[in-house]
């Protein structure tokens, strides 16, 4: 699967990469990864539709040893940077305390509708809902 990446250094000089994995089909689920020293420490799955200008964040997961360091926020920002001006939403949110704390802290660049995915017809087709 093709990948795009951008890198930067953290405050300890560790190399941080954000790697984008494109979806297999148009408007399908793609993936962003945060890698520190070559190890994946956080991922998000998202769907983008350039036709209907929609983005759905399907999942954000950060390795427990790397939580509360901004990697989840970095992924959310990177996701929204891939679709500026899009109508953004998320799937149903995890009700864990960590998840609730994470989403309460967020101040995304683009408006984000939490807990109710606003899939367009292209995304639904990519998800196999309409065959």
TrEMBL record:
Q: SUPFAM superfamilies given for it? A: Acyl-CoA N-acyltransferases (Nat)
For molecular function, the Gene Ontology terms on record are: acyltransferase activity, transferring groups other than amino-acyl groups
A Pfam family name for this chain? Answer: Acetyltransf_1
The record, for InterPro entries, names:
Acyl_CoA_acyltransferase (IPR016181), GNAT_dom (IPR000182)
Q: Do you know which PROSITE patterns this protein is assigned to? A: GNAT
N-acetyltransferase domain residues are 1-131
From the Swiss-Prot or TrEMBL record, give the protein name.
Answer: N-acetyltransferase domain-containing protein
């Amino acid at each position: 699967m093709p990948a795009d990446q951008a890198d930067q250094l953290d405050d300890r000089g560790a190399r941080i990469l954000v790697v984008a994995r494109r979806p297999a089909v148009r408007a399908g689920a793609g993936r962003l990864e945060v890698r520190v020293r070559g190890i994946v420490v956080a991922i998000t799955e998202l769907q983008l539709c350039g036709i209907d200008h929609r983005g759905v964040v399907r999942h954000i997961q950060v390795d427990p040893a790397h939580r509360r360091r901004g990697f989840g926020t970095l992924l959310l920002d990177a996701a929204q940077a891939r679709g500026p001006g899009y109508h953004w939403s998320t799937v149903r949110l995890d009700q864990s305390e960590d998840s609730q704390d994470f989403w309460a802290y967020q101040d995304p660049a683009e408006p984000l509708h939490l807990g109710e995915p606003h899939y367009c017809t292209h995304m639904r087709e990519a998800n196999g809902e309409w065959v």
